[in-house]
Amino acid sequence: MSTYIFTELFIHKCYDEALESLSSSSPRLLEVGGNTGMFSLRTKLLFPNARILSYEPEPANYRVFNDLIQSNRLNDIELRQEALGTSNGKIHLNINKKNLGGHSIVDDFGGASIEVALSSFNELIIQEKPFDLIKLDCEGAEEQILLGLEPMVAKKIKKIIFESGVPKKRLQMI
């Protein structure tokens, strides 16, 4: 899976259009679903002065991401080991044994789950300085987060990119 993610980000450059549209040389980004840190690494390659706040709840991915930060001496990346959703508390993270980037607080794979900390996306956006770009790739929780946006929170969001597993017909209704 790491090879797939690397290819997606560094070869196919799937996020480059969104990143290159940023007007600041030191943009502030929020990443929901940091996985092993490849998006942050790509962002720092394009914007060495970027400031990134990343959330990754799965312990092994969190450790790999943290090692990536340390071994590459990446500055201005704050990594938090928790999930973001529509409330605060604890939640079960369903472990996807086939995909290290596919763990989900929404989808159940019929296997193991672990309890992780959960923070409110709305509260985070209210408390933090505005982000130049928000990237949501949180394996099915994107729809909950987007539909749960409070109007005053939505007004603070400049740009958002997200992975959608929502069927096209459902997206047209939203």
Distance between the termini: 31 Å
Please indicate the percent range of residues in DSSP E strands (runs of 2 or more): 15-25%
**Strand order, sheet with most strands:** 3-2-1-7-8
User: How much is the average pLDDT?
Assistant: 89
**Total helix count?**
8
Shape: globular
* Residues in helices, as a percent range: 25-40%
Which CATH class? Alpha Beta
Radius of gyration: 15 Å
SSE ordering? HHEHEHEEEEHEHHEH
Total number of domains? 1
CATH topology call: Rossmann fold
The assigned structural class equals alpha/beta
For the secondary structure, the number of strands is 8
Which stretches are low in confidence, meaning pLDDT under 50 for 5 or more residues running?
A: 169-174
Largest sheet: 5 strands, parallel
Structural description of this entry:
The chain has a single domain, classed as Rossmann fold, CATH 3.40.50. The strands form 2 sheets. Strands 3-2-1-7-8 form a 5-stranded parallel β-sheet, with helices on one face. It is globular, with a radius of gyration of 15 Å. It is α/β, with parallel strands linked by helices and 174 residues long. The longest helix is centred in the middle third of the chain and has 13 residues, at 59-71. It has helices at residues 2-11, 16-20, 38-46, 59-71, 121-127, 142-147, 151-154, 168-173; strands at 28-32, 51-55, 77-80, 83-85, 89-94, 113-120, 133-136, 160-162.
